[in-house]
Amino acid sequence: MRWRPCPIPLRDDAAFHDQEKDAPMTTKGNEGQSALVTGASGGIGLELARILAANRFSLVLLARSRGKLEDLARELRAQHGTKVTIVPADLSEPGAAQAVFDSLTDAGVQIDLLVNNAGLLLEGRFGVIGLDEQLQLLQVNIVALTALSLSQTLSCLAVDRESDDDRAQSGIFAGSLVGWLSI
């Protein structure tokens, strides 16, 4: 198994795809690969899902909102013919990340690219925000991220030991606090 950074193109226009032979991620080279995108119902996660679909990845979309995931899945299937699996799950629930990964493994879904994008931000003074909210933030931003990343790593190591599959496994850790900053 080779671990490598995964350069995702941030554009999805015809001029970019005309140069695809020079790009490490292309619309032709990703067929048969799958990506799990957390926080896929909006913002950065939604846009990364669109880019990955345009680049021929099969997708597993994870977020709390089933309706938004279903809408996005319909869009990606219609526009790109993408195979999409939706996983409505709340990563703030203890054990949710491991349960998601276990169910994907049991279903035979191998994740080639893990996009850890789900995250929470609390506003206010530390002493005013309740303990339950603080623990929920830690569950999503630290525990779930770590559980998914470790599960993906261990899965890749197991596949690498059991086969001659040398496809690189990748991870992206995304998120933005910029929208929450006052200027």
How would you portray this structure in words?
This protein is an alpha/beta fold and 183 residues long. The chain has a single domain (30-175), classed as Rossmann fold (3-Layer(aba) Sandwich). Helices cover 41% and strands 13% of the residues. The protein is built from five helices and five strands. The protein has helices at residues 14-18, 43-54, 66-80, 96-106, 131-162; strands spanning 34-38, 58-63, 84-88, 113-116, 170-173. The chain has a five-stranded parallel beta sheet with strand order 3-2-1-4-5, with helices on both faces. Helix 2 packs parallel to helix 3 and helix 4 packs parallel to helix 5. The radius of gyration is 17 Å and the shape is globular. The N and C termini lie far apart (44 Å). The model is unreliable at 1-23 and 178-183 (pLDDT under 50).
